[in-house]
Amino acid sequence: MTTHHPFLACGGDSAKIISQMDWASTRVGDIKDWPEVLKTTLALMLCSSFPKALVWGKDLLTFHNDAFRVILGDKPLAIGRPFSEVWSEAWETIEPIAVKAMNGQSTFIENFPLTINRNGSSEQAYFTFSYSPVISAEGEILGMMDTVVETTLAVQAQQRAEILNRELTHRMRNMLTLVGSIASQTLRSGGTPQELETAFSQRLQALASVQDMLKTGHATEADVHSIIASAVAPHAIAEGRINTEGPNLHLLEPQALALSLALNELITNAIKYGSLSNDTGTISIRWNKEIPGDNGFYLHWQETGGPLVTQPIKAGFGSRLIQRHVASAFGGSAQVTYEAGGLRYEIKPAEG
C-alpha cells in the first residue's frame, strides 16, 4: 500500500493510514505535492521505535508513528486531526509549550503531570517529552516534533516509596519515643536489676510482636485476635485458662501497640499475683464495638478463681501504662478495678 511513497517505506499501521488519507482536502495538500522536509521528517518519525508525533502547519495537523499509539490509548484516530483537538482535555496546559516550539524554542520536560482522557475517563498521567521545532532549509518553522515517553508507573512507584519512607520515619520516631518512655518508667518503678531487666525485656517483646504484624507492605492495622494470641504465646498458659470472645476487629497501629503493652502487663501480673498464679484461676477477655456502627472500642478483662485481690498501696508503671497510655491511644477511658474476686480491666470509648 505504501510502495509508491518511498518516505513511508518503514511501513506499519501509521504509514498505511497516512498513505490512504485524503490530504488534498487539508492545508497540507495532496501527498504527492508534499515538501521534502515534511517527507523526510515523516520518514525519520515512522522508522523510530520511540513514541513520536509530528504536528504540522498552522492547523497543527497530527501525524504519529506506531509507538505513539500507546500514548493515545483508546482515543479516536489522531492522524489528520489538529493536535489541539486530539489533546483537547489537556490543551490549556500544553498549548504554551507547543506555541514555544512553533516559535522556534525547544522544550524538554521530565515527569510532567497531565490530566488526560484516553480510556473513557480522566486520569492523572506523567510524561517525559520534548517539543522541538521542525525548520526548513530556508529557516521557516513548519511544525514541531513531539518525542515522548510515559513515566506514570515510575512516578507512582516513586510516590509510593516516598510515602513509605515518611511512614517508616514516622513509625521509627514514635517507636523510639515509646521505648525511651518505657525504659525511663521501668527504671523508676524500682526492683532488683534482674527484675527491671525482665520487665523491660517483656515490654519490648510486646512491642516487637505487634510490629511483626504491621511490618508487611503498607499495613497500619492489626486484628485483636492476633494481638491477644501474640501476648499469650510466650507464657505457655494451659488451654482453657484464658477465654476470649469478640469479633474480628482491626486496630490502628497506636491502638494495637497500646493494647499489646497492656495485655503484657495484665498477663504478667496475673501470673505473679492473680488468677494465673494457681492451677484453677481463669481469665475472660471480651471485646466489641460499643454500639453497632460506632468506632468506639470496648474491651473487658475479668479474672476469677485466683487469690484474694487487694488494691496496691502505690501504682507502678504497669498500672499507669494500662490506664493512662491506653486511654490516650483509644481516645476513651481505661480503668483497673481491684475486686476481691478478681482483677477487672475495661477499655471504654469516650462518652458522648
UniProtKB/TrEMBL annotation:
<keyword id="KW-0547">Nucleotide-binding</keyword>
<keyword id="KW-0808">Transferase</keyword>
<dbReference type="GO" id="GO:0005524">
    <property type="term" value="F:ATP binding"/>
</dbReference>
<keyword id="KW-0067">ATP-binding</keyword>
<keyword id="KW-0597">Phosphoprotein</keyword>
<keyword id="KW-0418">Kinase</keyword>
<dbReference type="InterPro" id="IPR011102">
    <property type="entry name" value="Sig_transdc_His_kinase_HWE"/>
</dbReference>
<feature type="domain" description="Signal transduction histidine kinase HWE region">
    <location>
        <begin position="167"/>
        <end position="248"/>
    </location>
</feature>
<dbReference type="InterPro" id="IPR036890">
    <property type="entry name" value="HATPase_C_sf"/>
</dbReference>
<dbReference type="Pfam" id="PF07536">
    <property type="entry name" value="HWE_HK"/>
</dbReference>
<protein>
    <recommendedName>
        <fullName>histidine kinase</fullName>
        <ecNumber>2.7.13.3</ecNumber>
    </recommendedName>
</protein>
<dbReference type="GO" id="GO:0004673">
    <property type="term" value="F:protein histidine kinase activity"/>
</dbReference>
